[in-house]
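BUG: 3D viewer hangs when loading the predicted structure for this chain

Environment: internal workstation, default settings.
Expected: structure renders.
Actual: progress bar stalls at 90%.

Input used:
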Amino acid sequence: MKIGILTVHRAYNYGSVLQCYALQEYLKSLGHDVWVIDYRQPWTEAVYKAFSFYYIKKQIKHPRVIFNYIKGYNRRKKTTKQRKLIFSTFMKRFRLSEPCYWANDIPQDFDRYIIGSDQLWSHACFGGEDRVYLGFFSHRKNSKVIGYALSSNTNSLIIFGRDRLSHIIANFDSLSVREPFIADFIQEKLGITVPVVLDPTLLTDANLWDNLINEKWKYKNYIAIYQARNVAGNPTYLKDKAQNFANELECDVIDLSSMTYSVEDFVSIIKYAKYVLTTSFHATVFSLIMKTPCYAIKLDDGFDGRYVDLLHAVGLDKEIAERNFIPKPQEINFLIAAKNLFTLRMDSIKYLEKSL
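Structure tokens produced before the viewer hung:
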């Protein structure tokens, strides 16, 4: 079966490329002819450029944002070049279709289209709603559109509203979401039961990631941090927490937030860290996969549910930290978490294979 994946595969973002890679590799393991549809989403393309007129046009009502954007050009130019090299290298692992830029460009020669996961239904991530990720594109009548582990946030779901959400769901032959609160929202507004499944990175155990591991990190002594979202007015919040903890443990701090490490190093650093402190869903995910103790910090900004729900589901509530927490060494029972995760994985696999 020829399968095309539609997701955010071109972002300079660890989680985005890793979840795409995981879904590609899992579907390949089932014997399918798997492609990543090279959809170049306009907002994503603009955000990850050093300078974009499209970005300025979208922000025209926010002159202060535009001023800061232009002011920061030289700084972004340097970091963008570095990040492009890092992520473009990893993207060579994807089997890509020809580039496409709009809904009308999506190729129609696939038997199945899998849209997911990541925050594809989030207005904040794409400068508004994206028609492709909502299933508004042409395809053959005998093909299927499958939503797998789709994610969003509460504000975006409210913006969609009942009628729009109903039209969106009608585009899918099968639909699943990544977080329970999305399923609850759809159930409340539309009376439709939508299954909750795992992010693609959790569809297999740690064996999938063995070929990415850089063993040099095994011999270093450190705490890893990844600050995907900042605390308002305190950009060094997570680094300060980690440094105090590192002093107590007599080790170093490696800050993955700098985006100066390769994707392979991102996975490896989390695997061999003493602890991970993070506000990122995928840093939490890889801590779970690699059985690395983690503090996943709640910022109460509407985005915590992504990792809070996951840690609840596998029985690792003690890894959920409030903003004012003080990190301390703690024993984590990964055996129980692994059993719970295995059950969730089997349910997700059953859903995905049945949908195909």
